Amino acid sequence: MIGSCPLRFDPLSPDQLADPYPTYASLRERSPVHYEPEHDLWIVSRHEDVVAVSLNTADFSSVGSVQSTTTPYPDEVQEVLAGGIGEMIWMTASDDPDHRRVRGLINRVFTPKRVRDLEPQIERYVHALIDEFAGDGRADIIERFAWPLPLWGLVEILGIPRSDLERLHKWSYEWLRLMQVTDPLDQLVAYAHSFVELQHYVLDALHRRQAEPTDDLMTGLLEARLTVDPPLSVTQLAWVPMNLIVAGHVTVTRAIGSGLVSLIDRPEQMEKVRKASDGVMANAVEEILRYESPAQGLFRTALRDVEIAGTVIPEGAKVMVHYGSANRDPALFDGPAEFRIDRPDVRHHVAFGKGAHFCVGAPLARAELKHSFRGLLDRLPGLRRAGEGTRDTIFFARGWSSLPLAWDPPR
Description:
The chain has helices at residues 14-18, 21-30, 47-55, 75-81, 98-109, 112-131, 141-146, 148-158, 165-180, 185-211, 217-224, 234-237, 239-264, 267-274, 278-291, 323-326, 362-379; strands at 33-36, 41-44, 60-61, 138-140, 298-302, 306-308, 311-313, 318-321, 384-385, 390-391, 400-402, 404-406. By secondary structure, it is α+β, with helices and mostly antiparallel strands. The N and C termini lie far apart (49 Å).
């Protein structure tokens, strides 16, 4: 029931980690543009307003779009970060003209054809991963499958050795934790060291491609960087593969875990997916993304006083455009709390964002999710929960850090 008690948005609290959707409903109904003083954050929760803010690049900046707080890093963390490669130019967290330069660069080399050519390899790797644990009858599906699969797809495109998957996963996750500044100082310092290691790793890989070009995305980016105006330096270019690695795999990891739970909890829906045609499977992937959006939202900064839904957001305010709430908005979706793989209105979801910052990796993510659910449901009969699992504690994301599942192993 939505009552008159004080409305509190705290995505890392135990109750909202377990089920944030009653809070989202309260936000949409009682305070669609809500100021949360504890986080010094404005939350925009209705679909119409989320789209409006996302499209309004004149009044809202995307710089700092993955940082949930304006709190500066402690001096000890700043000292470590000073050893990095230099100023960040990150597509997800930039405005024009930098955003246009970087996105245009990626679009030149990260083409739909490259993704299509990769699909047979994605399918083979799905089954190669499942081969490693199918006979065991149980596994932590996040550890054994959900993060290795999408990260493999990215390193395959970028030309990074598979032997570095675990390091890249660790660096990526710790970068996300660094950006939300919620952990103790010693951990933040460790995350900063990890982030600096990732920067130098990618920059070194680009320097090697300069000396010995190869047929991969990194070499393509090096060549294409000279075609944008003004051209990107190699150091500036290093942020592009980092953006792809981090944003590209953590989102799919969360969608795999959340999608499996949504299907396991609804056996009739899982059976439909198991037998689905390509068209139904594609719609099922979109419903998985809508129902439990992996990126619950990203952040904007108001460049001036802006009125949204009758509320003035002040200049300089940190704003969260809340995809997870927008994707449960009954103004757009019929029965939004229901999980239906044949949902006809699913195309309106904003799980990949909207406008200029729509996720450039969406085609790859969709391909990976399609082959993942096909492979897992075909190869793991009787798939079921084998424990509680652990929710991830990233401020702007929703998913599982561990998810023990069991199935009927082959005799």
